[in-house]
Amino acid sequence: MSAVSNQLRRAGAIFGTALFLLAAAPLGQADHNTAPDFKIREGKNGRLPKLNTALPRYVQVFGLFIHATSRVPEAKLLHAADIAADFLDNNRDGKPDNPEVNNTLWNKSSAVVMGYNERELDRLHDRLDDQVDDYALQGLFATETLPKGGPHNANSSEFDASIEEILHIITSIGYAETYPDVFGERRGSELAKAMDVARGGYFLSVPRRYPAGAWYSYDDRTCDYGCQVTEYVYWALTSLLDGQDFRNRGRDISHEWKLNTPEKLRAKDKAVVKILTDPKYKLPTRLHDRKYQ
């Protein structure tokens, strides 16, 4: 996760109160339980009006919006929407797999905000600043949204970061807020306890050096403890779904994550596998294939 993505997600009122908790869907906007139509809408989004000027185009995916600047290519905006839909409706029956998580995303005014590149998203962050404290936002660059990268293409050594950033907001808002004792991004949640084992101990901030036996060793010092939990569940779930085992990927991420296959994860990190495979949480059980639309 880039620093600006982390800033946008953390600054976007993860713990704030959404202004529109009880509001009905504005005219022309679908109910948050309606299957997405993948139409790119331009102009006013009545539910997140503070994004309208800076991010004039958007796609609604159940209770989550994908907003984009005018520089983001349509194909990449639609690809991000497709990834989000597959995460939220993994069985593709046209309904969110976990309605409670979807309701949380909706009630927290959640959105992925797409800029063309890191520079544009940095400017966007400076422009919006504290104006969006009542939204939950996750940043994503068009330049890191790679439909032809891995894991979609096993021969590519590039990674489609839309998988990571979209999953971040679903887990850090949808799951953490719906099931705080299990997915909460704080010390003592079931997920955090599993992470502390994976890191080789409890560390409030990034340690200078991780213990030798740690298999999760994220070293970005801008990433606080809650952020570390977000990254951990991303690594674990995508590895469980076999999304981290393609050309050179294991080597490229080994400094940060060592259990990049379902077999490695199941053998070493049984605590997180137990959480992620518990049917009551209705997490994705298969890797997306970019074909939800």
- In terms of quaternary structure, what is this? single chain
Strand order of the largest sheet: 1-2-3-4-5
Proportion of residues in β-strands: 5-15%
> What is the average per-residue confidence, as pLDDT, rounded to a whole number?
91
Tally the beta strands. Answer: 5
Instruction: State the low-pLDDT regions, or none.
Output: 10-25
**Terminal residue distance:** 26 Å
**Percent of residues in helices:** 25-40%
Largest sheet: 5 strands, mixed
The total of helices stands at 11
Per-chain topology:
Elements: H1 3-11, E1 41-42, E2 57-61, E3 64-68, H2 74-88, H3 99-107, E4 110-115, H4 118-128, E5 136-141, H5 162-178, H6 180-183, H7 190-198, H8 225-240, H9 249-253, H10 262-268, H11 270-276
Parallel strand pairs: 3-4, 4-5
Antiparallel strand pairs: 1-2, 2-3
Helix pairs in contact: 1-4, 2-5, 3-5, 5-8
